[in-house]
Amino acid sequence: MMWLHWVLTGLFALLGMGCLLLVIMQLPGVWILLVLGLAVQLIDVTWIHGDDATAGWWALGLAAILAVIGEVLENLAGAAGARAGGGSRRSMWGGLIGGILGAIFGTPIIPIPILGTFIGAVIGAFAGAFLGEVTGPNPMRTTEAMKPAAGAATGRAAGTLIKAGIAVAIWLIVLAGLLIR
């Protein structure tokens, strides 16, 4: 039955690479990666290695903690960028909401595979922060609103790249946990 372990681990490695692309596309690639790792670990514990497969549990636990950290960092990065650019709370919320909407609507509008969603999220963060600053009770002039909007866009891009780096770390940690016996 060891052959099954190696086949499943190899399949996890290949599918994990695809999950890394999903992260850039603003999709839940990290969580799919964790579910795949959990499935392989459960099969290992149930049918192949038995209770000897403890390294996989430690790896999955560490990976889950990193996944939560990655999500938080990605979502707060755009808001932090708007704030760093001198934006108000309104532009921070606009950047966050605009980034999400930009990712959703950018996918069909920007027909570049994988990068279209990423570009849409960055443009959406910019537009949301900009709209947040030029509307409301104390609107900024359009030239003043460009700095927080650029900060939100930069923050969103940086957040996605940070999350992608964390996703690579998760992939390698879970893969190592599955390989160590």
What share of the residues lie within helices?
over 70%
**Kindly state the mean pLDDT as a whole number?**
89
Q: Could you tell me the radius of gyration in angstroms?
A: 20 Å
Number of domain modules: 1
The protein's oligomeric status is single chain
Order of helices and strands: HHHHHH
Low-pLDDT stretches? none
Structural class: mainly alpha
CA(first)-CA(last) distance: 14 Å
Which structural traits does this protein have?
single chain, 181 residues
Structural description of this entry:
- With 181 residues, the protein is an all-alpha fold.
- It has one domain.
- It has six helices and no strands.
- It starts with a helix and ends with a helix.
Topology diagram in text:
Layout: H1 2-24, H2 29-48, H3 55-84, H4 89-109, H5 115-134, H6 142-179
Helix pairs in contact: 1-2, 1-6, 2-3, 2-6, 3-4, 3-6, 4-5, 4-6, 5-6
Outline:
The chain is built from 6 helices and no strands. It is an all-alpha fold and 181 residues long.
